[in-house]
């Protein structure tokens, strides 16, 4: 839980730990039944080309509505799913649902739609990941190049040899890879060269401070230059203002996601966005 200042954190320490623990236990108990009760759904946030303003793809984001807890943010339940191992089954559902949806959009629009799926570290290190991706993509007839997997830096710091083999296997399928939340983990720039990734997503915290704080602007600028030199595409996350977008355009960032263009929307709303996109041509 984030608190505004340290005094407050100390003051509420004992009360809030009990409350947090209760909440975590409640989430965990409900999470165990959420799949079979069909409480999950996906929403999709557009990713936009900065140069021409067109949608280039979407990121699938998991949503959970539970009768007892209401709408629970993935920021709350994903870490619990990760810790309990429930993420394996939930992640398999996300992949399946994404591929099913991609096929349905393509059937309706006639063009492949690119979608990125988030993988948590535990999912990424799970043994059958590669065969399960191959199987899912094959069953739904999804062009592998339309699917992208987003992995955070924390999934990459251990077992480098294994990670390298796995990433090459994913690339051999034709599926793309991106590094999510870039800049927040224990970034080692060396792995950008070693691992076969196509895209970097600059974390929202750096974008938020663009225009307020020179350090963030310097960091964003460096990451974009680095990505260009390594021939990686670069995406800015969490763009909320025209000012941020103008700065990113100036810095030659390739793509952005953010509330400025659109929040994550339902599968039906994606169809409407794709129609509007077509008429932009
Ligand atoms: P993420 O992968 O970095 O996803 C981006 C998050 O930033 C999303 O939050 C999105 O709604 C939010 N966002 C996008 N644009 C803006 C903006 O302009 N302003 C602000 N304030 N926020 C913006 P969301 O959907 O709550 O997801 C949070 C995190 O939960 C994700 O971060 C990802 O790490 C995790 N997550 C979501 N879905 C899945 C999933 O299917 N599997 C796994 N393993 N993790 C997921
Ligand atoms: Mg992501
Ligand atoms: Mg991200
Ligand atoms: Mg993020």
Q: What coarse outline follows from CA principal-axis ratios?
A: globular
Q: Total number of helical segments?
A: 12
Proportion of beta-strand residues: 15-25%
Helix content: 40-55%
- Average per-residue pLDDT, rounded, comes to 91
Major sheet characteristics: 8 strands, mixed, barrel
Task: Look at the helices and sheets and give the structural class.
Answer: alpha/beta
Which molecules are bound in this entry? ligand C2E, magnesium ion
Strand order of the largest sheet: 1-2-4-5-6-7-8-9
Low-confidence stretches: 1-13
First CA to last CA: what distance? 45 Å
Give the H and E element order.
HHEEEHHEHHEHEHEHHEHEH
Radius of gyration: 19 Å
The count of β-strands is 9
């Amino acid at each position: 839980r984030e608190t505004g200042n340290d005094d407050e954190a100390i003051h509420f320490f004992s009360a809030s730990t009990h409350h947090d623990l209760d909440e975590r236990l409640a989430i965990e108990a409900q999470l165990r039944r959420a799949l079979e009760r069909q409480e999950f759904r996906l929403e999709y946030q557009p990713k936009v080309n900065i140069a021409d303003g067109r949608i280039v793809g979407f990121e699938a984001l998991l949503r959970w509505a539970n009768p007892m807890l209401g709408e629970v943010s993935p920021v709350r339940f994903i870490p619990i799913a990760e810790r309990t191992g429930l993420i394996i089954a939930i992640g398999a559902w996300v992949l399946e649902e994404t591929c099913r949806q991609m096929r349905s959009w393509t059937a309706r629009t006639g063009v492949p739609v690119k979608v990125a799926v988030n993988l948590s570290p535990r999912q990424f290190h799970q043994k059958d990941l590669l065969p399960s991706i191959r199987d899912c993509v094959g069953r739904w007839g999804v062009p592998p190049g339309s699917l992208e997997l987003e992995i955070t830096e924390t999934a990459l710091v251990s077992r480098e040899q294994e990670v390298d083999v796995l990433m090459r296997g994913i690339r051999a399928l034709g599926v793309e890879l991106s590094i999510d939340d870039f800049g927040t983990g224990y970034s080692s720039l060396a792995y950008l060269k070693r691992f076969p990734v196509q895209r970097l997503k600059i974390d929202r915290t750096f974008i938020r401070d663009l225009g307020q704080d020179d350090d963030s602007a310097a960091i964003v600028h460096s990451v974009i230059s680095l990505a260009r030199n390594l021939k990686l595409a670069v995406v800015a996350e969490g763009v909320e203002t025209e000012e941020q977008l103008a700065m990113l355009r100036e810095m030659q960032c390739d793509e952005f996601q953010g509330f400025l263009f659109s929040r994550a929307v339902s599968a039906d709303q994606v169809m409407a966005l794709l129609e509007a996109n077509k008429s932009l041509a």
